[in-house]
Amino acid sequence: MDFATLLGLVIAVGAVGGSYLLEGGNLEAIFLTAPMMIVIGGTLGATTITTSFDTVRQIPHYLKVATWNRSISLTNTIDRLVQLAEKARREGILGLESDLKTIEHPFFRKAIRLVIDGTDLESLRDILEMEIVQIEERHKRGISFFKKAGGFAPTMGILGTVLGLIHTLGSTSDASKMATHIAAAFIATLWGVGLANLFFLPLSDKLRMRHEEELTHLELITEGVLAIQTGENPRNIRTKLLSFIAPTHRFKE
């Protein structure tokens, strides 16, 4: 699991839950079925309306990307591109055929395949840039889904609280019991605000970070492959591609 995600969740949930317990609160009072159904079900339902079923089916994948994917090592990709450039200069572009099966990244493998097939420079750039655009659009769906959920959740929490208050004020005549029921009604607001700020919105931002990392990686691959096709000096390729990495991290990845 991504350490930053795990640490952030532990700190955030621990701080909120711990402070509640320190004040003498009871966790059982928070986990009420009705408020949770309203907030979770209502949020997912409202968010689903705004998107496609295909995006909804991808939710487990988005969660995996946000919580399990490791950061991309640009340095390793640069080293691989330089190795391919050196081999292409020695053996020619067709000599890269045997390296295709060792390239796991689909975009990287496709780019090298296009070079081997003799795709001209302009067409190669157009194809790869179009591929990047499509990948970007797919990433944005997941980012948008969790961002919208973060917007709906607090509203659903308020809706649950209003429904609880209506039921309490309309059916409870005992003042001593009314205070307990009113407190329970606000549990829905707690779940709405909590899920939005501790889960949905942080996941949306984490997916955006992964998206930006992947775009940088794809752009680096594109520039490297184009340089290989034009027969550029491998040393110059390395120097050019290192510009994608911050100076303080170029030899630390």
What is the element layout, followed by pairings?
Blueprint: H1 3-22, H2 33-49, H3 53-57, H4 59-67, H5 74-91, H6 106-116, H7 121-171, H8 175-185, H9 187-229, H10 234-241
Helix pairs in contact: 2-7, 2-9, 4-9, 5-9, 5-10, 6-9, 7-8, 7-9, 9-10
How does this model look, in words?
The protein has 2 domains: 1-31; 33-253, no CATH class. Helices cover 76% and strands 0% of the residues. The chain has helices at residues 3-22, 33-49, 53-57, 59-67, 74-91, 106-116, 121-171, 175-185, 187-229, 234-241. Helix 5 (74-91) packs parallel to helix 9 (187-229), helix 6 (106-116) packs parallel to helix 9 (187-229) and helix 7 (121-171) runs antiparallel to helix 9. The longest helix is centred in the middle third of the chain and has 51 residues, at 121-171. The two termini are 19 Å apart. The mean pLDDT is 89.
Structural class of the secondary elements? mainly alpha
How many extended strands? 0
Q: Whole-Å distance between the termini?
A: 19 Å
Total number of domains: 2
Q: How many helical stretches?
A: 10
> What best-fitting shape do the alpha-carbon axes yield?
elongated
Radius of gyration: 26 Å
Bin the strand percentage: under 5%
Low-confidence stretches: none
Largest sheet, in brief, is:
none
Compressed to H and E, one letter per element, the order equals: HHHHHHHHHH
- How helical, in percent, are the residues? over 70%
Q: What's the mean pLDDT score?
A: 89
